[in-house]
Amino acid sequence: MRIAIMSDSHDNIWKMAEAMPYLEAADAVLHCGDLVAPFMILRLIKGTGGKPVHIVWGNNDGDKVALSQVAATTDHIHLHGELAEIELDGLKIAMNHYPKIARGLALSGRYDLVCYGHDHTAHEEWIAETLLLNPGEIMGLNGRSTLAILETKTRAVAWVEVGHYPG
Questions:
Q1: Residue 156 contacts by C-beta under 8 Å, 6 or more apart in sequence?
Q2: Which alpha helices (H) appear in the chain, and where do they start and end?
Q3: How far apart are CA 82 and CA 118, in angstroms?
Q4: β-pair partners for 158
Q5: pLDDT per position as a tens digit, 88-123
Q6: Which domain CATH number covers 57?
Q7: Count: domains in the chain
Q8: Which of 29, 13, 23, 36 has the alpha carbon at shortest distance from 160?
Q9: Reduced to 3 DSSP states, what percent helix, strand and coil does the chain have, rounded to the nearest 5?
Q10: Residue stretches of the chain with pLDDT short of 70
Q11: Distance of CA 52 to the CA centre of its chain
Q12: How far is Cα 33 from Cα 95, in angstroms, rounded to an integer?
């Protein structure tokens, strides 16, 4: 199974559009917060072809009522609040928005994968048997728009930079 992991899109519809082919190619999508506006959920609904999309709140997701109303129009968008604990292809996964909380979750040893966002910095680290992963940011505030693709069988991470065209 291939899981696309992203965070901090902050209403950048152009970078989200560039990320969409990678989301479409994945079997599931995780978003670690800061979508910001409800129209970003609409883009995920339209662009992921009915695949499961798991979302946690970030500190900039302001209108949670409107975000929830849009998500409720389909059954493949799952809003988890501040913390998600899910299982995909046998992997126990925790998601939240904040680095310190994520590190604590990873140190607990209860999960195979812990994902987070917030600081807009791509990060991959093994803590014992737990992969701690920040996919970076989609919005491009710090110059790079990245997401991560995790292959569940091997737990290998492939990094994707959207909006970056070699040559």
A1: 150
A2: 13-25, 38-47, 64-71, 99-107
A3: 13
A4: 149
A5: 999 999 999 999 999 999 999 999 999 999 999 999
A6: 3.60.21.10
A7: 1
A8: 23
A9: 25, 30, 45
A10: 164-167
A11: 12
A12: 9
